[in-house]
Amino acid sequence: MHNPLLDSGGDIGADRYGFAPGAVLTWRAAGAAGEADGADGADGADGAEGAVQGRSASLGWFSRTALCRALLIVQLEQPLSLLPLRGRLRAYAWQQGRGEGFDGVQRRHRGLGFSLDQALTPHLALFARWGYQTQGRVRFDRALVAGLEWQGGAWGRSADGLGLALARLRTSAGFAVASDPAARGSEQLAELYYRWQWLPQLELSPDVQWLRGVGGQAGSRGRVMGLRLRVAL
Prior knowledge:
By secondary structure, the chain is mainly β.
């Protein structure tokens, strides 16, 4: 599941149109093919740092050199039975051959993370994300996200969901030295979102985020409102 370091570290590598070449390789253990009861769709503070812009789209992506520099993710997935209802644990590592650092230069970036989704009741799920950037000149090198999502079946909208997430992103030592020694703290945020399935193929998710210590600067605060559109073809 999504980890905020992929955005804040520039590892998505998306161009100004939002496209990014890449490949995902997943190994799924027996019994992990289905969604965990009540634990699907938890997005948990996605995109804490917003979209990453880069070069415009072109067919040059499909060259051998471009594919060698694409985003690659290897993921292991294991079902959990810690509680009466099912859960899932994912471990993954990524490499972005053209990750954009805080200095605007593209370099090879690497990172690893864990994601946990656990159903607590038929309508309530817990999710947690942890990420660690192992290589790259990134603004944030560690991230921890945790939250709860209430499934819409509790109010007669089984495909909807209401979520609350808390996140903490730690600024890297390299960013503090290169930019501002005061940026040695952590950015903290809270996010409230609602996932509304308008049509079977169309999903809208309005959200609001409250931020403290923006960019690691102590005492700074901010608020961001957004709307995500998801279309299934």
